[in-house]
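TA notes, week 10

Several of you asked for a full example with nothing omitted. So below is the full record: structure tokens for the whole chain, then the designed sequence directly under it. When grading your own attempts, check the secondary structure regions first.
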């Protein structure tokens, strides 16, 4: 699934900072995977779908905020979350 998020862009050296909505997967309290979403509605839908497979050590959260983004083969990947 490919998504488009282009709300805020700041180019600094090789970093791209954007406001993103992302579905985060936590395993034992650590972020293990992420998926950039189009909007919060898509994120919450994905969260509900993922939580159908219950695991005690896995949880999901939707995050809306700034992140350092890397573009690779037309997809956006989060390099770092910017917590303010």
């Amino acid at each position: 699934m490919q998504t488009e998020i282009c709300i805020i862009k700041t180019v600094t050296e090789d970093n791209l900072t954007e406001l993103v909505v992302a579905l985060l997967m936590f395993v034992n309290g650590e972020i293990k995977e992420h998926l950039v979403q189009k909007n919060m509605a898509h994120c919450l839908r994905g969260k509900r779908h993922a939580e159908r497979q219950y695991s005690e050590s896995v949880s999901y959260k939707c995050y809306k905020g700034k992140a350092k983004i890397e573009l690779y083969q037309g997809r956006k990947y989060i390099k770092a979350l910017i917590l303010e």
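The first strand starts at residue 10 and ends at 12. Use that as a sanity check on your answer.
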